[in-house]
Specification:
This protein is an all-alpha fold. It has helices spanning 2-36, 48-52, 57-66, 69-76, 81-85, 89-101. It is built from 6 helices and no strands.
Length: 112
């Protein structure tokens, strides 16, 4: 019985760690947008939420699976082409997590 309780507790802790890291990626993507893609304001995108709602979650997922994610970001934000081309793989993943989370059919960003 003691082993079973320990095993369940370990599984619960591991599950909470994975959940936390999944939400952390979206926040890193948001930070990337704020630091590197502020120039998108010149393209009429007043903030990252406007950038994210250009597609719904299914649309962002299909772009990622087809390998055309960065290409689409360059279409949405032509002034940010240089920054988007220089993105590291982890930045692409984090920005994808951000746009997926706040997509047109996703969560509504909060001010706090």
């Amino acid at each position: 019985m003691k082993k079973m309780t320990s095993l369940l507790l370990a599984a619960a802790v591991a599950g909470s760690v994975f959940t936390t890291s999944a939400t952390a990626d979206a926040s890193k993507g948001q930070r990337f947008y704020l630091k590197k893609l502020k120039i998108c304001k010149k393209d009429g995108l007043k903030n990252g939420a406007v950038f994210a709602i250009k597609h719904d979650r299914k649309g962002w997922t299909s772009l990622k699976e087809s390998g055309k994610l960065q290409e689409e970001w360059m279409k949405i934000c032509p002034h940010g082409v240089k920054k988007i081309k220089k993105m590291k793989e982890k930045d692409v993943k984090n920005l994808y997590d951000f746009v997926w989370k706040y997509a047109a059919d996703g969560e509504v960003p909060t001010c706090g």
